[in-house]
Design brief:
The chain is an alpha+beta fold. It has 19 helices and 19 strands. The strands form 4 sheets. An 8-stranded antiparallel beta sheet has the order 9-10-11-12-19-16-15-14, with no helix packed on it.
Length: about 650
């Protein structure tokens, strides 16, 4: 009897863990899902164009701005995308010339659609028809950079596959069909027929019948990244709006829920996004997009997801990763100053009942100019009907004093909660096969009064090289250009076996300490037996980085520090960083080191390659690397650097 009681107790304990798996696809059977989904012909996610009373509730300021912008496109000449532009990805590595044409066409179509909905007089219909037809005639709806390498820069039209921007395109066309179907049919039924034909051929059929790598974990175990929920959000929009066959529509949603679970199941419980805040807007936020749209299509049958703690933590990450109003934590490929999708963030916060997230979203509200965000077109429809609430909402930034994400192995701490004044220190453990990975285990950043001091350079311009076997030949992706050591001539290699160990975090009123063992982050040839790095914020005083090491050999040893300000050598083991405050005022900081042990070198990093142009756009031509070279390396050593105001 005791045995059965014990087994029952263990099964009861296992229920919460099991419930965390397949949160989305495990809720409804196929038949139940068919019953909860509103049929396509009855579904009205937003007022139809002819519902003028409904559209009177939309924000008139936003709509007038769209009309003003659309008027500049009345005689827009829809460009074709030359084959040679697509070939540039193979010939020069350039992806932007192709994408700039493709993206602009979709932007113009979106603005024209919104203007016609508001005005409803027909003067934008012909330009919209031209745009739909032009886009349908494109050989590939996606990005040339996403083409399989074997096709050499031009799509194989006999083998359609779905990337980010092919899915985005389907969304634009689906909303055109939803809002203007009757006006298109009045011209000719061939337009809507073409929309469905092309979307079905390029999106629906490939997604239902072909494997796509973004749908599940990679062969090496890396979980899906932002491609998964981002593509699914557009797939969901398109199939809910366009697919009239109820069986096919339900089957697509059913499969999509399973694909989303492949993203959600391995996601860390702490909600940490290893792609960083700038990708969060297409990762956790895109998962929210899916849930939000599913709720509109099912009379809130998926509202239960909002109570899930992991899902709630995924939302909270965006304000937990904030340094100051302009700067965010930018490990890996993330941007230091990403844009914030304010209305979406506010909605996410409202749905999970997080007041801090709502205030955060409202803080970033901007006046409407008629310009559309580059991606996630459907978010605009939600935004149109919430502006009065959004304007009245409380605005503010949480700026937590302490953030600890144990699954992601990232911490952040500032001198005081609720203010950017003083020091901000953040560091990471993790491994070197994270999404958008840089080889950066043990890296850290230091900010003061919300301004950068010691930085993570982040990513530059994406080219063919960025996601190739040459990725780590790009300087800013390697550990030698992070705040990390080079040991016996060796930097950190890529791969999930190169990781942090013994990661600990200890918060406190006076100080915060983050410690990790970097031994396994370096190759065996580096000869590391033990490398314990401790990062300490002494609140209101200084930042201290301490390394306690034991090596098999001590041929050479150097430490690197990255900054975006000029550096001068001072007296007695001091390096002076000539920084600037947020108002441009001069402010000097000292990096203190043991001058008996280390010889400093300062170099300005030359920004010359196509990839470097992205660094210029984020930081300017201002990147400096400090290298401290150990004068007489020892196999056992203890050393530290401190950073403090001068």
């Amino acid at each position: 009897m005791k045995r059965y009681v014990l087994m029952g107790w263990l099964l009861w304990l296992a229920v919460p863990a099991l419930a965390q798996q397949n949160l989305l696809s495990g809720k409804f059977s196929v038949e139940e899902l068919r019953n909860v989904l509103i049929p396509q012909r009855e579904w009205t996610p937003f007022p139809r164009r002819e519902d003028r009373a409904g559209w009177a509730q939309a924000d008139s300021g936003m709509m007038k701005a769209y009309v003003k912008k659309a008027e500049t496109y009345l005689h827009y000449q829809w460009p074709y995308v030359p084959a040679t532009k697509s070939l540039l990805i193979e010939r020069t590595g350039n992806r932007d010339e192709y994408q700039s044409i493709s993206f602009q066409k979709r932007d113009v179509l979106g603005v024209l659609l919104l203007a016609e909905i508001y005005e409803n007089q027909g003067r934008f219909v012909d330009p919209i028809i031209d745009g739909v037809w032009s886009i349908c005639e494109e050989s590939f709806w996606g990005a040339s950079a996403h083409l399989p390498r074997e096709v050499k820069g031009l799509v194989d039209v006999s083998k359609p596959f779905v990337d980010l921007f092919a899915a985005e395109t389907a969304t634009y066309l689906a909303w055109v069909d939803y809002y203007l179907g009757d006006k298109l049919d009045a011209v000719t039924p061939q337009i809507r027929k073409r929309i469905y034909y092309e979307t079905n051929r390029r999106i629906f059929e490939p997604l239902m019948n072909q494997p796509h790598s973004w749908m599940q974990s990679h062969a090496n175990g890396r979980p899906p990244n932002n491609w998964n929920p981002w593509i699914c959000s557009n797939w969901l929009n398109a199939v809910l709006l366009l697919e009239q066959d109820n069986q096919k529509r339900t089957a697509a949603v059913r499969k999509l829920l399973g694909v989303l679970d492949n993203f959600l199941n391995p996601y860390p419980a702490d909600g940490g996004c290893d792609e960083g805040p700038s990708y969060w807007g297409a990762a956790a936020a895109s998962l929210y997009d899916n849930i939000s749209m599913l709720n509109t299509a099912s009379r809130n049958a998926f509202a239960y997801v909002y109570a899930d703690e992991k899902f709630r933590n995924m939302g909270r990450f965006i304000y937990r990763a904030q340094i100051s109003p302009n700067y965010f934590l930018n490990f890996a490929d993330a941007d230091p100053q990403p844009g914030m999708a304010a209305t979406m963030i506010y909605r996410y916060g409202k749905d999970i009942q997080d007041a801090d997230m709502m205030r955060f979203g409202a803080y970033y509200r901007k006046p409407e100019t008629g310009a559309l965000p580059r991606y996630h077109f459907f978010r605009n429809f939600y935004a149109l009907f919430m502006q009065q609430e959004f304007e009245r909402a409380n605005k503010g930034l949480a700026l937590p004093a302490d953030v600890w994400l144990p699954d992601l192995q990232v911490f952040a701490a500032r001198d005081r909660a609720g203010t950017t004044q003083g020091f901000y220190l953040a560091g990471k453990g993790g491994h070197n096969d994270e999404s958008h990975n840089h080889n950066d285990v043990g890296n850290y950043v230091v900010y003061y009064d919300g301004q950068p001091l010691l930085i993570d350079v982040g990513r530059g311009t994406y080219t063919r090289k960025t996601f190739s076997s040459q990725r780590y030949d790009i300087w800013y992706n390697g550990s030698a250009y992070h705040n990390l050591p080079t040991i016996n001539g060796f930097s950190q290699p890529p791969g999930n076996t190169f990781k942090a160990q013994q990661v600990t975090y200890q918060g406190g009123k006076e100080q915060v300490t983050f410690s990790l063992d970097l031994t396994q982050a370096y190759p065996a040839e580096a000869g590391v037996e033990s490398w314990i790095r401790s990062m300490r914020l002494k609140r209101g005083r200084e930042v201290m980085i301490t390394d306690q090491i034991r090596l098999k050999k001590a041929d050479s040893l150097s430490q690197h520090l990255m900054t975006c300000y000029p550096v001068e050598t001072g007296k007695g083991g001091q390096l002076i960083i000539r920084s600037k405050g947020h108002k441009g005022q001069s402010r000097d900081f000292v990096v203190q080191y043991d001058s008996r042990k280390w010889q400093p070198f300062v170099e300005k990093v030359a920004l010359q390659t196509p990839e470097d142009q992205g660094i210029r756009s984020k930081w300017g031509d201002t990147i400096y690397r400090i290298t401290l070279k150990r004068l007489q390396p020892k196999t056992t050593d203890l050393f530290a650097v401190t950073i403090a105001p001068l």
